[in-house]
From TrEMBL:
Domain Acetyl xylan esterase positions: 1-317
Entry-linked SUPFAM superfamilies: alpha/beta-Hydrolases
Top-level taxon of the source organism: Bacteria
Name the record gives this protein: Acetylxylan esterase
Pfam families cross-referenced by the UniProt entry: AXE1
InterPro entries the UniProt entry points to: AB_hydrolase_fold, AXE1_dom, CE7
Chain segments annotated as transmembrane: none
């Protein structure tokens, strides 16, 4: 695979042409207000895992529409005082998986919560959260479910779940709500950006090769799924382009980034055809907080920095969480 997107010097100044809806803030304020009419009702149930260095809780909370959403909450064993909190969102098709795969941030000394993504998990990891909402005709996958109306779009439910996940994790007495970070890779990075734009008091975010950014470019630049799902939908429904573009504008990570109020560490990979680097830089260049940095992996695809990015995060994130 060779470089296919803009040169790095152009990426550093690239700006998205995504047009923000005039009622973007009102749309999300109304969405979250509706979600909060349902009692969050977080339930933390201790589970036995055979792990001696952590304590694990199976979590259920009320997300969009009051629907039950699952997660894992993991603490270093023997925790007695509130710890800074890391909330993670997972990649496309994946679920929360099993607790023993979620040890990095508890091992670094933090409270940790990972949200299960509704309707996903069969692709990898395994999930436990159904999506009880149906949709009209959609291309296989999640990108086009309800895509003709922003109120019905799948990611309205997911982003709302994510905000509620932060609220649920913060409700645990051993989580320091005042020191909360959001992280995620690929789809999880896109969800992280949404949370950054919707939760005003995070202390840090770390979107790794984020998905769901700069839809006008992403959906026309790459043939790779999941972005290609949008093109395949419009390949059949040829006259729906305008309504699809309008819907996606309410969910573009570029617009959430413009509202980001916490320090941020991004990453991009220059051979990434799944989340092209220009789409990542579109969000990075729009990000509102001046304390922002981006790790660039020149010869990698969507795997990005992998363990090297985790190492970078371990050097960067704790300084923000413990300041």
């Amino acid at each position: 695979m060779a470089l296919f997107d803009l040169p790095l010097d152009e990426l550093r100044s690239y700006r998205s042409r995504s047009v923000e809806p005039a009622d973007f803030d009102a749309f999300w304020a109304t969405t979250l207000a509706e979600a909060r009419t349902h009692d969050l009702d977080p339930v933390f149930k201790p589970v036995e895992t055979g792990l001696s260095t952590v304590e694990v809780y199976d979590v259920t909370f009320a997300g969009f529409g009051g629907h039950p959403v699952k997660g894992w909450f993991v603490l270093p064993a023997g925790t007695r005082e509130p710890l800074p909190l890391v909330v993670e969102f997972v990649g496309y098709g994946g679920g929360r998986g099993l607790p023993h795969s979620r040890l990095l941030w508890p091992s670094a000394g933090f409270a940790y919560f990972v949200m299960d993504t509704r309707g996903q998990g069969a692709g990898w990891g395994g999930g436990d959260t159904p999506d009880p909402v149906g949709s009209a005709s959609a291309f296989p996958g999640f990108m086009t479910r309800g895509i003709e109306d922003p109120h019905e779009y799948y990611y309205r439910r997911v982003f709302t779940d994510a905000v509620r996940a932060v609220e649920a994790a913060r409700s645990h007495p051993l989580a320091d709500a005042s020191r909360t970070a959001a992280i995620g890779r690929s789809q999880g990075g896109g969800i992280t950006l949404a949370v950054a734009g919707l939760v005003p008091d995070l202390v840090a975010i770390a979107p790794d090769v984020p998905f769901l950014c700069d839809f006008p470019r992403a959906t026309t630049l790459t043939d790779k799924h999941p972005y290609r799902e949008v093109g395949m939908y419009l390949n059949t429904y040829r006259r729906r382009g305008e309504s699809v573009r309008r819907t996606l504008s309410y969910f573009d990570g570029v617009h959430f980034a413009a509202r980001g109020s916490a320090p941020a560490m991004f990453s991009a990979a220059l051979e990434d055809q799944t989340c092209p680097p220009s789409t990542v830089f579109a969000a990075f260049n729009a990000y509102a907080h001046e304390d922002r940095t981006i790790e660039v992996y020149e010869f990698n695809g969507h795997e990005g920095g992998a363990q090297y990015q985790e190492e970078a995060q371990l050097g960067w994130l704790p300084r923000r969480l413990t300041a």
